[in-house]
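Technical note accompanying the year-one report. For the benefit of new consortium partners, we illustrate the data format agreed upon in the data management plan: each record pairs a sequence with a structure-token string. No post-processing was applied to the example shown here.
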Amino acid sequence: MAVGLIGAGEMGSALGARLSDGGASVVVALDGRSERSRRRAAEAGLDDVGSLDALLDASEIVLSVVPPGAAREVALEVGARPAAAGVATVDGSISGPPPRRPGTTTLYLSGVRAEEVEALPFAGVERRVVGNRVGLASAVKMCTASVYKGRVAVLAQALRTAHALGVLEPVLDDLAETGLADPARTGTTLGRASAKAWRYVAEMDEIAATQASVGLPPDLFAALAVVYAELAEVAVAEAPEDVPDGVPLAETLTRLAPRADD
């Protein structure tokens, strides 16, 4: 089985590696991509065929693993190619971290041919088909991400405020007692979230739109989009993997301090 992978970022490369582990032949198109993406793909054992056209020609199934803000653009770019004529669309969303360890990541799928993607040999990745209508897998992501990433944004706002007001220690102690913050991990968690915050802006906007579509007020996640946009401006690193384990929380919060107005 030849699988084309669009998006050789942290998540895409890890998924590609799991497919390779399962016996699939995985190709990527890295023309114009960064050296970081090329290194990730090489480390994952993925075969670079250069262009998107070459990827489509070489693939039986194409997976697009890109940030939410880029998904529509990628779909339009792929659909404009003759090689994509007549292909079926399967909706997919990912819950959990990049699948470097078995059992940590779930791939949700929907669409009339979702079972074909479910059958791909994703070694160590759980797959769940949630229906035959495109959009249902994305709906799962909009609901789960609203909790996971919404909680991180709220925690970041609370602890940045506590740090600025000089009450970080009692606030962190209180939150740790209820399991809402781990003193040993929170500095790393917030640092890595800031490195990915630019990706989450469009996702928060999509969550707001999803909630509005069922009659709920969109204001909460529209506001969290603003929070993540501001975190992206003060991010402590270019990429999550650049933030080491065990970074002291106070150090992270100092680096995440709001920038003074010009």
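Partners are asked to follow this layout when depositing records. The beta strands are 2-6, 25-28, 47-48, 61-64, 91-95, 106-110, 126-129.
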